[in-house]
Amino acid sequence: MASRAITRHELTRRREQLQDLQRYLAVLEADHDGARAKLLGFRQRYLEALGPLMRELDELEAQLHQATALLSEALQRQGVDAPASTSPRAKAWPDVPALPEATPLPPEPTGPTTDLPPPSLKTLYRRAAMRFHPDLAPSGPEREVCEQRMMVVNDAYASGDRSRLEALLLAAGELPEKVIGGPADAVRAWLGLCEHMVQGRIRIVQAQTTMLHAQQMHELRIAVERAEVGGMRPLDIMAARLRAQIAERRQELYIGERVGGDVSLAADFLRKRYQRLA
Questions:
Q1: Nearest residue to 273 via CA among 103, 84, 43
Q2: I want to staple 156 with a disulfide (CB 3.0 to 4.6 A). Which of 74, 117, 164, 167 is the partner?
Q3: CA distances from 15 to 142, 189, 199, 275 (A)
Q4: How far apart are CA 121 and CA 141, in angstroms?
């Protein structure tokens, strides 16, 4: 197989492309981490300001649920058609996960200055079998992964798919010059693998950033901070609304615990309660 010699100019150009990709990736990661830090900081401030009030409101809602359930059961025993009580919906705070650890790029190939012939397909198959054969792996999930990879190896060898065997070995950490030949082809393969890995990482960071910006808490942070820039105190307004809701629920609970003896009042209370929930 003739060597596809890589010129010094091409090598320099490809290295610069890889460096550009890495710089772009670094900017994306910094933007993501900055947005995540802002979101975590805002969530902490939000919970410190409103968390106790929200917990108090949730406790009242749970007591109201219990009271309305008892009323509904009592009315049904008296032959009055009353809706079944529904549990209050729990408020779940979505996670704000950090970026997963990046896989380090493989080392640049080193070796003699003369080109090395690429190994035969059979040699590549043997190397892949030594790395992925399930009999050489410990039991458990790792062996299952090796079984799946060995199936791919066998299929690639049977179909003469050299590129698939090369990709598997390179991704597993095999030295490029032992897989592709080299150093010219090995350097080219190393650059291609590094570009592929960096581009994959870019897609991961972009997807994580999109998910971060789609969170309701992120949208709330933007709205609150804009209002604060305009001189408003939105968290204080939210706290006042929560206190008003707490007062309403306390009154509702007081009534709900005392209308059980009057069928008409109990039915009217339940009707208004479920209208509010709807």
A1: 84
A2: 164
A3: 35, 12, 14, 66
A4: 29
